[in-house]
Amino acid sequence: MMKWIDQTLFDDLILTNSDQAERTIRDIQPLMEEVLPFIADATLQFRVYHDETDLTNYLDSVRICFVRNMILFSVSKQTYPKNTYRILCCNDDDLQYTDNYSRMKAHEGLVEPQRIGKLSKRKVEEWVEYQTQYYRNLERINEENVRAIRAHIARLEQIPDVLWGKDRQSGTIERYGLSYSFQVERTGVSENIRLLRFGHSLDAFLEMARPYESELPGKSEAAN
């Protein structure tokens, strides 16, 4: 299991790669010294792999983070072809019902600030504002996807002959030679309709072409 943790939890761990971990932490210290004059509350976070079989811990990477607007941001530095600093939102992976396409949509209409060649409080604030707007857009997309998925499942729950999967995230309906299947995905519900092996006779056609009768509760009572 891979997980990001803070300094307090990290200090209590015994690592299988302690020598490499010391080098990794030492290598990021110069960037931390550059960042602190402009982001005084910047801290280190540690990405640790925990092996649940033998209960060992392995440091994978370290990042510099800070919180604004109740959102976690990270700061990184690229030295080629020239020095540039990046401020990114770290919370977008926590939104369960989004994907890469959702992230692309969340950036639509936003004007990206100029890249940071030299750190300053003004430039940090500009990127925090930009990434905050992006994250709020992504939250909205996540909520829309949740509502759409729940509405689709609620509609299916009113149909009595759904054959549900164990986790009720998938299922099928087989009726009159047709099979409808669905699967709840990260951002919506995928659907498929196919013909069953039903034959090629006139009787088979007439069976499949029967007029649809609604299975929704109360339909027959209302008709009476």
What would you say this structure looks like, in words?
The chain is of the alpha+beta class and 224 residues long. It is 36% helix and 28% strand. It has six helices and nine strands; from the N terminus they run βααββββααββββαα. It has helices at residues 7-11, 18-35, 100-107, 121-157, 202-208, 219-223, and strands at 2-6, 43-51, 56-68, 71-78, 84-89, 163-164, 170-175, 178-184, 189-195. The protein has a five-stranded antiparallel sheet. It has a four-stranded antiparallel sheet with strand order 6-7-8-9, covered by helices on one side. β7 (170-175) and β8 form a beta hairpin. α3 (100-107) crosses α4. The chain starts with a strand and ends with a helix. The model is unreliable at 219-224 (pLDDT under 50).
In summary, what is this structure?
With 224 residues, the chain is of the alpha+beta class. The protein is built from 6 helices and 9 strands. It has helices spanning 7-11, 18-35, 100-107, 121-157, 202-208, 219-223, and strands at residues 2-6, 43-51, 56-68, 71-78, 84-89, 163-164, 170-175, 178-184, 189-195.
Q: What's the topology here?
A:
Layout: E1 2-6, H1 7-11, H2 18-35, E2 43-51, E3 56-68, E4 71-78, E5 84-89, H3 100-107, H4 121-157, E6 163-164, E7 170-175, E8 178-184, E9 189-195, H5 202-208, H6 219-223
